[in-house]
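Morning run. Coffee first, then this:
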Amino acid sequence: MPAEISAPAAYFDITKAPLRISAVRLKVRDLARMRGFYHSILGLQVIAEDAQQVTLGIGETPLLLLSGDPALSPNDPQQAGLFHTAFLLPARADLARWLAHAIQLGQRLQGASDHLVSEALYLADPEGNGIEIYTDRPLAVWHDAAGNIRMATEPLDLQALLVEAGDTAWAGFPQDGCIGHVHLQVGNTEKADRFYRDIIGLEIAATYPGARFYGSGGYHHQLAGNIWNSRGTGQRPSGMAGLEAVEITLNAAELAQIKTRAQAAKMPHSAHSEGLTLHDRWGTEITLKA
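And here it is:
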């Protein structure tokens, strides 16, 4: 069992994990519409923008970068790339307030699940990019008697969740929120293991039919890969809207180890001033920043 990271109130402190998601970059066809969606529905703040790109996040911390190009082909849900970006809220009450906000705006949900380690709501943006809004359960309930992380997909009681909102309205994405994980579509889970486990250095925290969940520092997953829609797919076409890159923050020692493993495996990679960029075998860019 991986070493656990202590956190106040027995909740996992994802900011202390050795590897953590810092931002996601999407290529979009309608930049203005997508900017409006993430600002109004998710409550992300616009940090910077010009005619080609919008950066959204919390305060001065970027979480989502949108690059606009009307010439892109529409996202194909059977290609490798993004299954969903998962935005982690600090408390169950925040999830309840976001749900009430979504209902008020008439935002359609695609699902609502109790995953044992977390409670999650699912939707998609106007161009079909999957989104998860979730909150973690206390760390103490994550494991079975043998110390393995238990995950499942069970119905979530939305009425019971809404009670948690109280009289406080959603006021935008919380200051302590972040991107908790990114779930990818891949063509083969064993080949995904050879990149995300063997090169990036993440642990297989849990498995599910057709999916792997990769964690760092004892978290249930910072990254995941599934073949539910994309079994056997090849490289994602470069001119297609959707996922452009996942940015991961880590310390310098971890970065050096990943570079050494990539060199030993003769895997193409590029070093830059902030860190290292690699691509999985389906073309998904992983940018590592120390």
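The CA atoms of residues 253 and 290 lie 9 Å apart. Good start to the day.
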